[in-house]
Amino acid sequence: MREARLIALVGATGDRPDWEDVARTLLNEAAVLIDDSAADWPFRRTVTPQPPVADGTTVLLRGLGRAFPSGQAGSTRLILTQSTYQLQRWLDWLDLHPNVTVVADLSTASSDVVRDARARRGPWARIDVVEVSRAENRDFPAAPLPDLVRAFQQTDATIRLDVCRQAVDAAPRDAAILLACASALMEAQLLDESLAAIERAFEAASDWEAVQYELGKLWLRADDTARAAAAFAESTRLMPSFAAAHSNLGAALGELDRPVEALEALEHAARLDPHGHTVHNNLGATFRDLGRLNEAEASFRRVIQLAPAFVFGHYNLGHVLFLHGRFDEARKAYEDGLAMDPSRTPQQLARLALACAGAGDGPGARTHAREALNSASDARRQEIQAEMAETAEALRALQGPSDAVAMLERELAPRGTRGKETLR
């Protein structure tokens, strides 16, 4: 039997062997087969087989790629639609059934699932991805909840919410459907209604880690970080292998100025998901807050290695290098981030200006400071100007007289006083 006991089949178009032949060829044994569909995973509490499963059984998962609809974006995305959570649940189950193997069809997976698989994020590190030929057109069983499946595949949040409300009306005590609706309500910023749906899900499934995880996300949106941390902590207690819950717990504890506890949670998350760039980004920020700059630098360099297009990895590396006094390297890190960031936020432009000043590049400092101030809102401009002026003063105290810092300070001076030094 292969060492990996969850095998995902991917491959190019071609003749598709019989499922049983594929499974038995891969496993080199006469497998007892249980055929199952993964298409409705996001809308059911339990995704693993319920009846006792005999030793030597192989579970065939048809349509695994359809189990993770990705119509939602960013932090609102329902945890039940994410491969790193659902597949970790399978691996936890397999750890309790050491003689069972799963063969799954990943041929219809979305790009984000393929990306996680190739990056070996979280549970994917323990999953064999095997190339096999297959037919272009596959016959999949119809999902039990086709409207919900379609609603979470598309990007229209209004339609998604309408379908979720209808699904809750039809199944008012189904915890998974209540969580799906809570997520759609959260997406629409209807936080009171979302909280009510999560509370109803808790009544139906008080020991489900996904309920606590979605509750933590809601409290973050409501700017109640303490309650968010408590919910994420409970989620990790219920499922110790839940990497995202440990990571979010660490980030929340960091926001609460509890860096030692944050570090413990994030190091646990990194052990569970060593290839997760967001985990290492949060870990680097915590090392930075603790003054452990060498470890922070290593974490942010790991972020960039894992996700080169993640601009905050470059920005955070620049910040740490600046704190190290390595201004030329900090300038390069900020420039790399801004080159990939269409928003070019005033805060990052201001930090680039300061790095330029520290590196002795007065014209660069002046240009980027001007861009930062011109692009900032009226409310934010004065704050950024004051922050840059304070840091420029610290640079002057650290480096002594500097033409580059003086040029930056003249750019930051109130408009009525600019140029007065040239009249002496």
Folded structure, characterized:
The chain is α/β, with parallel strands linked by helices and 424 residues long. Among the domains are: 1-141, Rossmann fold; 344-414. 59% of the residues lie in helices and 6% in strands. The chain has 19 helices and 5 strands. It has a 5-stranded parallel β-sheet with strand order 2-3-4-1-5.
Text of the CATH class of the domain at 1-141 = Alpha Beta
Radius of gyration: 26 Å
* Poorly predicted regions: 12-17, 135-141, 416-424
N-end to C-end Cα span: 85 Å
Give the SSE string.
EHEEHEHEHHHHHHHHHHHHHHHH
Look up the CATH topology of the domain at 1-141.
Answer: Rossmann fold
Mean pLDDT: 87
The number of helical segments is 19
Proportion of residues in β-strands: 5-15%
- Write out the strand line-up for the largest beta sheet, numbering strands in chain order: 2-3-4-1-5
The share of residues in helices is 55-70%
- How many β-strand stretches? 5
3D shape: elongated
CATH architecture label name of the domain at 1-141: 3-Layer(aba) Sandwich
Q: Which structural class do you get from the secondary structure elements?
A: alpha/beta
**Biggest sheet, open or closed, and with what strands and sense?**
5 strands, parallel
